[in-house]
Amino acid sequence: MTNLDITSGSRFGMESTPSSILMRFGKRELFICRDFYKRLYRSNPVVECNAGIQAGHLEILLFRKWLVVMSKAH
Fold it and tell me: Which domain of life is it from (predicted)?
């Protein structure tokens, strides 16, 4: 079962984003928002993958605009 929440604040530290989407698939979460972070390096124009801030998180930057965070649900 999938839960869809549209929130303005989340535990991923994206409280300043006007809209974000949090989807839960069983024990996994998928968090999608606009990326406003100023990167000090040149990122890949299509897909950029990094380890997340917390253990077990995967951050995917799509088209230098959308941030997708995959994690375990708490």
Answer: Bacteria
Helix/strand/coil for 10: coil
Q: What is the pLDDT of residue 46?
A: 92
d(CA 36, CA 42) in angstroms, rounded, equals 15
The domains of the chain are located at 2-72
Going by the DSSP 8-state scheme, the letter that residue 44 receives in this structure is P
From 70, 62, 5, 66, select the one nearest 31 (Cα to Cα): 70
Q: What tokens were used for 32?
A: 């999608």
pLDDT, position 13: 56
Contact 39, 26 (CB under 8 A): no
Alpha helices in 1-74 (DSSP H): none
